[in-house]
Specification:
6-stranded mixed β-sheet, 147 residues, elongated, alpha/beta
Length: 147
């Protein structure tokens, strides 16, 4: 992969995001403006799903909620991350982007990332490095740039 482009590396999950400008010659990551980002914490549910009687007989069964609040929170956060990265891309903060996220967050990314931002993605990694510090993250970034 050519290194003449200005690369950024973004990693996120459903509640935390980091994005850096990659300075490969200096082996340094510089945080992009507006990062790190923190999202809403996952809700804690103390009770079990509701129970309902079947209309056909007297047996009870669990009533599943129509939506998963945790997944909605994660999707909204990934959408905010994508919007921030698109703003930076449009300001020419970077030319190419490497995205690393857990499988579910990566799926949300593919759904919500604007086409212009998706067009500059050089690589997607199904790995969540959102909580790693910069020093621990650098070998993963270098490996992604090489492969």
């Amino acid at each position: 992969m050519p290194t003449k482009h200005k690369f950024a590396f973004a990693t996120f999950d459903g509640a935390a995001a980091q994005a850096f400008l990659v300075e490969r010659a200096d082996r340094r990551l510089t945080p992009l403006a507006g990062f790190p980002m923190a999202g809403e914490k996952k809700p804690e549910f103390s009770d079990q799903p509701g129970r309902a009687f079947s209309s056909a007989d007297q047996r009870r069964s669990a009533a599943e909620p129509r939506s998963d609040h945790e997944k909605l929170i994660e999707r909204e956060f990934v959408q905010k991350v994508a919007a921030r990265l698109e703003e930076l891309r449009s300001q020419k903060a970077f030319e190419k982007l490497i995205v690393a996220a857990g499988p579910r967050a990566l799926g949300y990314w593919r759904d919500v990332a604007p086409a212009a931002l998706s067009g500059v993605v050089a690589k997607e990694l199904a790995s969540d490095y959102a909580t790693m510090d910069q020093n621990a993250l650098m070998p993963h970034v270098e490996k992604a740039l090489e492969g």
